[in-house]
């Protein structure tokens, strides 16, 4: 088999890259170890930045997103018994976020690729990448029991944190920055209306809680828990009680059947550079943010936007300068988004290793945010998404 760009992983990064390359007239093959059904049902993020929405709409995969996505112009912060609304749109010249589930973005992209005759191979096994340090990159994999080789000009490692592409880079080629937080999130999807029509980020002495949604009748709720918490140890009644306590008095939390329950770890991680020869990393393969700023998916989108432009310039005009600067361009955004995600996380969570002084400082920071237009603007412009670098 031969293609121009071999893409490992059919998450948002790999699929969007394949779609953007197709628009630029560049051929690609996407290889995915999971089934189509699995990736289309995998419940993860739900908040799209304005720039992510604009990109998806402009590249022709935004029809359902525009119809079904919930546009939010503000978020609420709860702390110390108070509620404070951050008016995202007023503070950012009219920008907003859209609530639309990651698996819906994935469905839309798969449909677009297959409708255009794109090759997305699901349920492949034993994927390995070779030859990227020289001029002949190759992806080896098994499909339906047969070993295949995909020769290509470039390889895009869009295979997430546990993927093989980053691991294939030679020791010493990468510097890894990593921090694990001493807490996780227990998340549920519930058939019940959310407590508010906007997201609520709640600071509470028992720990952080987040009240989000997927539709007006489907809630996505999270609360801070121990990092390795067993979700089975949390009965539905105990989950609702904890969420009610952290939401505080004055707002009713409607309970409904819990459709899904899971625990997510919290990590800040960056691998740099995001390139080794003709192998480029994008999305979670190169970096992980703690989810408090709702940035993981958006950062993956920003990476592949940059990579698609650089590859297009290379194929169209023989220019390699954008490809050479790929890592540098992405990492400027990555580190700013890491900072924001770390800041939101540190401000809102109960920090088990730190005492009451730290909690008072968090409350003072939230109070300052609520009272300062400058501080609120800083939050808002990061939350709706920083401008693309190029
Ligand atoms: P992924 O979506 O991970 O896609 C990588 C793909 O590569 C997967 O389909 C995987 O099956 C495939 N793959 C892996 N190894 C191989 C291989 N060897 N060969 C071929 N394919 C391979 N972000 C938020 O903002 N809010 C959230 O609430 C949130 N919740 C999350 C919950 C979980 C459990 C996880 C893991 C992440 C969550 N994130 C969240 C982060 C967000 O979902 C990711 O940042 C986003 O999925 C990144 O997209 P990606 O395409 O880079 O990686
Ligand atoms: C959601 C997830 C987040 O991490 C976040 O900060 C906001 C919303 C969500 O899944 O809806």
Give a quick rundown of the structure.
With 390 residues, the protein is an alpha+beta fold. The chain is built from 13 helices and 20 strands. The longest helix is centred in the C-terminal third of the chain and has 23 residues, at 326-348.
Distance between the termini: 34 Å
Largest sheet: 8 strands, mixed
What class would the helix/strand composition place it in?
alpha+beta
Shape: globular
Task: Outline the structure in words.
The chain has an 8-stranded mixed β-sheet. Strands 8-2-1-12-19-18 form a 6-stranded mixed β-sheet. Strands 3-7-4 form a 3-stranded antiparallel β-sheet. It is 37% helix and 28% strand. It has helices at 12-23, 36-41, 50-58, 63-68, 88-91, 102-115, 165-168, 236-247, 296-317, 321-324, 326-348, 356-371, 373-383; strands at residues 5-8, 28-31, 47-48, 70-72, 75-79, 82-86, 97-99, 119-121, 125-130, 138-143, 146-151, 154-157, 175-190, 199-202, 209-215, 218-225, 258-272, 275-276, 279-281, 287-288. It is globular. The protein has 13 helices and 20 strands. It is of the alpha+beta class and 390 residues long. It starts with a strand and ends in a 7-residue tail after the last helix. Helix 1 links the parallel strand 1 (5-8) and strand 2 (28-31). The model has no long low-confidence stretch (mean pLDDT 97). The chain binds flavin-adenine dinucleotide (FAD) and 3,4-dihydroxybenzoic acid. Residues 8-14, 31-34, 39, 44-45, 102, 127, 158-160, 163-164, 264, 283-284, 291, 294-297, 300 line the site of flavin-adenine dinucleotide.
Strand and helix map with partners:
Blueprint: E1 5-8, H1 12-23, E2 28-31, H2 36-41, E3 47-48, H3 50-58, H4 63-68, E4 70-72, E5 75-79, E6 82-86, H5 88-91, E7 97-99, H6 102-115, E8 119-121, E9 125-130, E10 138-143, E11 146-151, E12 154-157, H7 165-168, E13 175-190, E14 199-202, E15 209-215, E16 218-225, H8 236-247, E17 258-272, E18 275-276, E19 279-281, E20 287-288, H9 296-317, H10 321-324, H11 326-348, H12 356-371, H13 373-383
Parallel strand pairs: 1-2, 1-12, 2-8, 5-14, 12-19
Antiparallel strand pairs: 3-7, 4-7, 5-6, 9-10, 10-11, 13-16, 13-17, 14-15, 15-16, 17-20, 18-19
Helix pairs in contact: 1-6, 1-9, 9-11, 12-13
The protein binds flavin-adenine dinucleotide and 3,4-dihydroxybenzoic acid.
